[in-house]
Amino acid sequence: MGGLQRTPRHQRRRSPRLLPPHCRRVRTSPCFSSTSSFFFFFFLTVKIGNRTCSLQPLVGRPFGSLFSVGPSGLVPCADAPSRDDRMQDAADGPVQDETRDNRSLVDNNTAQNLSSDDIEAMKRDGVSGDEIVEALIANSSTFGKKTVFSQEKYKLKKQKKYAPKVLLRRPSTRSICETYFKKSPARTGFMRVDALSLLLSMANVGPYSDVLVVDMVGGLVVGSVAERLGGTGYVCSTYLGSAPISIDIIRMYNLSSDMTSRIVQAPLSDLCSLQNSGNAPSLLNDNIQGEAPETTAVPVENSQPSVPQPADTAISDEKAQSSKEQSIDIDISEPLLDEHINQDGDSSLDCKGDEDGSSIASKSLKAGKTPSPEKMKYWSEHGFSSLIVAAPGHDVESFVADLLPLLSYSAPFAIYHQYLQPLATCMHSLQVSKLAIGLQISEPWLREYQVLPSRTHPHMQMNAFGGYILSGIRIHNGDACNGIK
Amino acid sequence: MMVPLDPSAKPTSQRRIAEGDTVVVYERHDAMRAVAVRAGAVLQNRFGVFRHDDWIGRPFGCKVHSAAAGGGGRKGGGKGGGFVHLLAPTPELWTLVLSHRTQILYIADISLVVAYLELVPGCVVLESGTGSGSLTTSLARAVAPHGRVCTFDFHEQRAASAREDFEKNGLTSLITVAVRDIQGQGFPEEHTGAADAVFLDLPQPWLAIPSAGTMLKQDGVLCSFSPCIEQVQRACEAMRSCFTDIRTYEILLRTYEVREGALKGATTNEESNAGPLPQKRRKLVAPAETLDDIQNSSCVMVRPCSTARGHTGYLTFARLRVHGG
């Protein structure tokens, strides 16, 4: 019941429980810098550009705080005007009657009089980033000839490099999905945030839903469903075979213990056999741990698994993909494993024997309990409220046929895929089997705009692909209803 | 009902359609309507006459047949009448069946708004205008069971109709509808600093943005939806003074149609296919109807539907700046 009384997040934000001042480990939070690149910070330090910054200054700060990166690390910005203001200031007035153009600009690499050694020297002397930018402008022989727009662009580019700003953002479906999509899209099956949002809508995820999920995108979907459930209902993460799939990303969501306790994991074979027999399989009955999920909730602080691989791997395979022209290369420091284990020694390593002893199961821990036999029985009789499948590497047709009968009649479902063909085949077979109606394959298209006075246009670069979704509604096609009186 | 407020209210396979329930009558993916089930009532459509009495006691998602051949439909009533499916209403279905009193938001925009406003159960969200209540219903689901949607429209009659709809859909405890000109008067003071998110769909959003900033909690998110780029331009200018992370997006959906069929090869090789395939180009037909005569060479093909919504509006999101840190 505690979950129902969840404190509004804005009040929880500064709560010492979430960010204990004495605890040096900072919980994961996506941030974004003024370069609009996203990253996770993890534990103690974060690497911004080539500077390793302690995360200590973030502790106790509200989400939405702005930090600048100084020689001594992250420094809270004292209400500095945002870049939007700066753009605005520059844009006012001279915009309309701009007379300069680029006719006299010659790109011969001699415009800047400061050498990289000069800049390094300034840095060593503790000159602030903003001052370096000023110096660069003063020493640029062409700056004055540029248009106001390109002067602004120049300034912003230099600021990104020498005086980066970091905005502390709350981990949410939006920020987490955006971060993974930007930093390591392969890990989440190239699922863009608009596709994920559509999945959640199309599957009617809301309070008290029992959502069946096949999440092969690291837990992104399970976490976002749990967030929407807000400590009510259940998200049942099912998997093929006997070993649960990793849903580690759920740790990024800062889920409360109520919300975490609503995440259960069960093999598809168990769900199906239950469906067919109408009885709980016996192997579930001796799993005491699985009983009464509501009461075995564990505080979130302790539920951090000991091996922080997601951010870690996310970043390493990402370097190659990270965008070319970005001046800041944000990276994440190696997590300090030892220290972390010491802090968390009392928790997260208690692998109570799951029936198949899967290490993943015990690692992704309290969040992935086996559902109680009662719950399993309930679901076999009442069906799940909806289904989301995100198995971007699988032939979904083969197991969607097994999954749909687990849904209640009239339950909506949404199947994500990075390729169109598997969904087309799946849709076709559903049409033939008459298991579902309202079938539709859709592909979201998301374009961002630059909105500035006299300079509004779509971004020059856009992501052209965020995934495909097959949606539909499971219907009752039993004899009872077909009968014509 | 549409958004369960306690666990027992959600539709499951055990739930049966009862008098007073709203069902979505599904004819085709583009032909649906919401119907309140009343004993003795009938529904008449091109597939025939359907008696509500026949529906009561059936599970949601069931297929029901017409009692008599339809009047307006084809004369093919001889087949024993047509059928429809009875679905449990969801906010997504509601968007497809509600009566359009205004231009409405559709699923792509709605889902992005809900995600980008970072709505979770328990949030308080302000909306203006209410319009036909398409987005409002999804906002209510996102903040339920203990959150709140306060929605405002300056049009008294529209507000009343929306209120009626919300009541019918069992959303009254989640949504408050008020008549108010938000552009002129701003949001009511009682919400100052209390809103997790604010959504504006107004002709002149810039007039309401200062008030929206006052209503939001620290780090709260504002969204403004406008069909025209000039509106976006002015709205963004108004946001710059106290918002940060101002981003404007456009989202569209491309839908695909799936067919099973076979294509002619470069050379017609009569000997390999004895069937009619090589001789005349087969029309691509809906697979379900031709299951029997599908040739081995046929395959499932997919292409984008030729019509689509080309523009809905621009969505601008912004975050209330945190002062002082």
UniProtKB/TrEMBL annotation, chain A:
Keyword annotations: Nucleus, tRNA processing
Signal peptide: none
Annotated spans, Disordered: 1-20, 78-103, 296-328, 341-372
InterPro entries reported for this sequence: TRM6 (IPR017423)
Assembly behavior: Heterotetramer.
Role this protein plays: Substrate-binding subunit of tRNA (adenine-N1-)-methyltransferase, which catalyzes the formation of N1-methyladenine at position 58 (m1A58) in initiator methionyl-tRNA.
Primary subcellular site in the record, as a coarse category: nucleus
Family indicated by similarity: Belongs to the TRM6/GCD10 family.
Biased amino acid composition, Basic residues: 7-20
Any Gene Ontology CC annotation: nucleus
Protein name: tRNA (adenine(58)-N(1))-methyltransferase non-catalytic subunit TRM6
Subcellular location: Nucleus
Start-end of Basic and acidic residues biased regions: 341-355
Gene Ontology biological-process annotations: tRNA methylation
A Pfam family that the UniProt record links to this protein: Gcd10p
Automatic annotation (TrEMBL), chain B:
EC number: 2.1.1.220
Keyword Transmembrane applies: no
UniProt: S-adenosyl-L-methionine binding residues: 132-135, 153, 181, 201
Any one of the GO CC terms: nucleus
Listed GO biological process terms: tRNA methylation
Keyword flag Transmembrane: no
Coiled-coil regions listed: none
Keywords recorded for this protein, A-Z: Methyltransferase, Nucleus, S-adenosyl-L-methionine, Transferase, tRNA processing
Gene3D superfamilies referenced in this protein's UniProt entry, alphabetically: 3.10.330.20, Vaccinia Virus protein VP39 (3.40.50.150)
GO molecular function terms attached to this record: tRNA (adenine(58)-N1)-methyltransferase activity
Pfam annotation, one family: GCD14
Subcellular location: Nucleus
Main location: nucleus
InterPro entries: SAM-dependent_MTases_sf, TRM61_C, tRNA_MeTrfase_Gcd14
Domain tRNA (adenine(58)-N(1))-methyltransferase catalytic subunit TRM61 C-terminal: 82-319
Reaction catalysed by this enzyme: adenosine(58) in tRNA + S-adenosyl-L-methionine = N(1)-methyladenosine(58) in tRNA + S-adenosyl-L-homocysteine + H(+)
Family according to the record: Belongs to the class I-like SAM-binding methyltransferase superfamily. TRM61 family.
This protein's name: tRNA (adenine(58)-N(1))-methyltransferase
